[in-house]
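Human: Respectfully, please carefully check these tokens:
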Amino acid sequence: LWNITDKKIRCLFSQLILPYVTKRFIYLTLIHHAALWEHEEEALLLSQTGMYVTKEKVSEYPTAVLVQADAGRAGGDTEKLHTLLCHLERMGSRLFNRSQALASCRNTFRTYQELSGHELPLLDTFLCELGGDPQQSFRAMAQEGEKLEYPILLRESKVLAGQEVFFAREKKFLHSRTYLLRREQPYMFQRYVKGGGNMEALVLVVGSKVAGAQLRCCKGLVLRSSSSLLYFNINCDWELSAEGKELALKVAKILQVDICGVVLQCGDNGSFFVTEVNASMELGALGDIFKEDVVGAALDHVLAYINSQKS
């Protein structure tokens, strides 16, 4: 087993994973290779003669790789990370999550494209690409967005820490916020779900099971983020319905994601709409959020696969 992580969470995650390694692998040989994903050129090298990590040639590839690295956190070098993950898959390693799943969930609009045609409740969406004149292209797209009927949501399509989501009651608000938009980021206009009380469910999926769920509400309705403290848990006794669990599991199965957070926007009469899927969430942080043994659940899922390959 390899654990590919980035510098930000390397030490913390190693502290979390090592006790489980010792506890669960009494009868199984384990290779724990942390911090493969680094910025230094000498740390990782793919060449015609093979793969080198810190100038040492890799002679044996792992059965499984737990991926806890994301290009959004690791300097934005998406191509380098994707190349590494694809190489490991070509050499026979099973990634958790797969490179294709990570790519599908890195951009919410691409996620929507992958999920379309599967009879899932998705928000009506327009994509806005800010061209040479961002303000002009944004205003033109805002007119198209009127078809969704105000109020509407304006969301960054890339799933990153600090992801911006604006709530606009009218077009005038969108125009007044144009200067806040990041020109390098594509944005999505989405229909606002009325009747849901501005609440959403964050559902943690591990394997084919729901490992945790949290009901959240936005404080301000001006700026939201999937990783922001603008959200708070409003009901500690709340339990996700069977319909919500089934929807989250179906989303994860379609995207072929092993470990992910599925965000469901609440609608009328207990209905849900798929908002986004995050396949690169930090397991240690998730444990704090859900008050569950998320690291243990993820490792048990990975170990089940390793054991199936040994038999």
Summary: Residues 7-24 form the longest helix (18 residues). The chain is about 35% helix and 25% strand. The radius of gyration is 21 Å. Residues 2-97+299-310 form one domain.
